[in-house]
């Protein structure tokens, strides 16, 4: 098998062939020439995608695979990992959307030359869209050596953009990635994100909106009009996905976009920001939010939150980043309204009209 070849699981083989997973298990037992595992574990092996396709084709078992399924399988089996591959795909989709002629010119070259020229082309598209006014940019452009093993995937993603449009292609692949990792991420449902945006009353093309715990960027993507979108996320891969979603869901020149990777409570990337609105779905029940280090932080205007009250720390962070008269909308667990450890902070929020 070539080094860095795309791998596929038994479930992926089943989708390629249009059968159930039990059929794949039967093929492995009954056919001595079925491709051998090249990775994974004993209970969940992975196989070289190209070898599997060749075997299925020879057996007459290869179903007509939709382009979107083929691209997803390549992304899921990318040697860099699905998250890193999705970020690289998002970068290329931004290039396809904003500089289609440049992509066509590059795509006509061989794989090695394409990989060599892509970093500069991607940087030329992304740099003007993503502000560099903070210390931790969210989308570092991959090098030629990093891109080369994924060139087939990137070409396929560009073809998928031709079918669906670049934004929809990215949303499809992101959705498949999140569905495949349901326990790894906490998501904000689209309807909830839309409601929170409406409650914030963001309808001004000059408005500044912040999400200090952006996840995959759903809340900011729900903002219909704004002049500036700011986001911070502690997980670097999610910060990158947020940035790329915002690039793909907004038109060039319509919104200033600044996304940072880092721990918001401990290392705020936008300490001087005075936003018109803050939208936030913070992590719930987080004990390690910085209680010991942040005891004298000026953000605790309404009282120092207890170690068990991370949500009230996020509330006060949101309020600290608002301009006078601005609005913060946070998605909170019901317990945050009744825990005894937070009653003093809640009382002060109510007494002073912040809540």
Compact overview of the structure:
Residues 168-348 form the DNA methylase adenine-specific domain. By secondary structure, this protein is α/β, with parallel strands linked by helices.
Explain how this protein is built.
The chain has helices at 10-17, 21-30, 49-59, 67-76, 82-98, 100-107, 111-129, 144-147, 151-164, 166-180, 190-200, 218-221, 236-249, 310-320, 343-351; strands at residues 7-9, 39-40, 45-48, 208-211, 228-233, 256-261, 275-280, 322-330. The protein is α/β, with parallel strands linked by helices and 355 residues long. It has 3 domains: 7-65; 72-180; 190-351, Rossmann fold. Strands 6-5-4-7-8 form a 5-stranded parallel β-sheet, with helices on both faces. Strand 5 (228-233), helix 13 (236-249) and strand 6 (256-261) form a beta-alpha-beta unit. Helix 5 (82-98) crosses helix 9 (151-164) and helix 9 crosses helix 10 (166-180). The termini are far apart. The mean pLDDT is 91.
Keywords:
alpha/beta; Rossmann fold; 3 domains; 15 helices; DNA_methylase_A-5; N-6 DNA methylase
DSSP, total strands: 8
Approximately how much beta-strand content do the residues carry?
5-15%
Specify the CATH architecture of the largest domain. 3-Layer(aba) Sandwich
Low-confidence stretches: none
Helix content: 40-55%
Structural class: alpha/beta
Q: Report the principal-axis shape.
A: globular
Number of helices: 15
Number of domains: 3
Distance between the ends: 61 Å
State the strand order across the main sheet. Answer: 6-5-4-7-8
- The name of the CATH topology of the largest domain is Rossmann fold
User: What's the CATH first level of the largest domain?
Assistant: Alpha Beta
Q: How many strands, which pairing sense, and closed or not: the largest β-sheet?
A: 5 strands, parallel
InterPro entries: DNA_methylase_A-5, SAM-dependent_MTases_sf, Type-I_RE_MTase_Subunit
GO molecular function: DNA binding; N-methyltransferase activity
Domain DNA methylase adenine-specific: 168-348
Pfam families: N6_Mtase
